[in-house]
Design brief:
alpha+beta, 2 domains, 3-stranded antiparallel sheet, two-stranded antiparallel ribbon, 11 helices, 9 strands, about 20% strand
């Protein structure tokens, strides 16, 4: 799904940090036509909405995060917003489906659990989606084959610390009496985490519950009758996340150090890390040119 469009030249060099909110606004509005060509055909979604939510996501970010995003190159900011256009996802905010995340001097688009829910809803097959995190002490029953397949009754006032997470689940209601479900216990979730080269970085450290919640929803999407376009989007997101994770790990620490730190995290949860298959590919520069950006 890689495409290339001409980038409209604006006052600030694309290869340098955007530096200011004005530069971000100028960059995105100058390239409105190119971004519009990538907007997925989603009812109620247009390029101006994605541009405005992208700008707002940076403007309203915590000061420390905002400073890091403004240190990202114009190329990477533009590509992240273009990815949101192609995925048909709103950036940031309370109902944000994807988020702008700074890695070194590169802005990346990270799809959240609401983004995967949006893909499922767009299939037209799903009437409602329910997902959640199960903590120690919650009443939780899984009966695959029955309806509803999962019953979760959280304990009011219970502990919601990361170490108290015991499971995550997602339910997609196809009709009033029929639901698909995915259940993952803590060992399953830690196994998914162990396979990610971002196991010790970013959201797995700052927002573990959100990352665990995303896992069963993403798996559930594989059982929903997505359109060929959205199925390709689902596969591309997985490839992009893996490629970006590899770049971050290679930039921050050696492979041996990464494995050591990942093992320490999993050992703390009494989970045996599966053996890695193959070596982490070498870091490569994002494939940008001065006048064109491959989306």
């Amino acid at each position: 799904m890689t495409e290339t469009i001409a980038v409209t030249v604006y006052a600030h060099p694309l290869a340098e940090p955007v530096q200011t909110m004005q530069n971000v606004s100028d960059l995105l509005h100058a390239n409105r036509a190119g971004l519009a060509a990538h907007v997925a055909r989603v009812v109620g979604l247009d390029v101006d909405l994605i541009i405005s939510t992208g700008i707002s996501a940076i403007a309203l970010a915590d000061k420390s995060v905002q400073d890091k995003l403004l240190s990202c190159t114009g190329k990477s900011v533009l590509k992240s917003v273009a990815d949101a256009c192609r995925y048909g996802m709103v950036i940031g905010g309370v109902m944000g489906q994807a988020y702008l995340v700074p890695f070194k001097n590169q802005c990346q688009l990270m799809v959240g659990y609401r983004g995967y829910e949006a893909l499922a809803y767009r299939s037209g097959q799903v009437k409602a989606i329910q997902s959640g995190i199960v903590y120690k002490g919650d009443e939780y029953t899984v009966n695959i084959g029955s309806q509803p397949p999962i019953v979760h009754k959280p304990v009011v006032g219970g502990r919601h610390d990361d170490e108290d997470i015991v499971a995550a689940y997602a339910i997609a209601w196809i009709s009033d009496n029929l639901a698909l479900a995915e259940h993952m216990n803590r060992q399953d979730l830690n196994h998914i985490r162990s396979k990610s080269r971002m196991a010790n970085f970013g959201a797995y450290i700052t927002d573990l519950a959100e990352m665990f919640r995303k896992a069963p929803i993403r798996r559930l999407c594989k059982h929903v009758n997505l359109s060929p376009y959205d199925r390709a989007i689902l596969e591309e997101i997985a490839v992009e996340e893996d490629r970006r994770a590899g770049a971050v790990v290679n930039a921050d620490e050696s492979l041996a150090e990464s494995k050591k730190r990942t093992k320490a995290v999993l050992d703390a949860a009494d989970v045996i890390e599966p053996e890695a298959k193959g070596e982490t590919p070498p870091t490569e520069e994002l494939p940008f040119e001065d006048t064109k950006i491959p989306f």
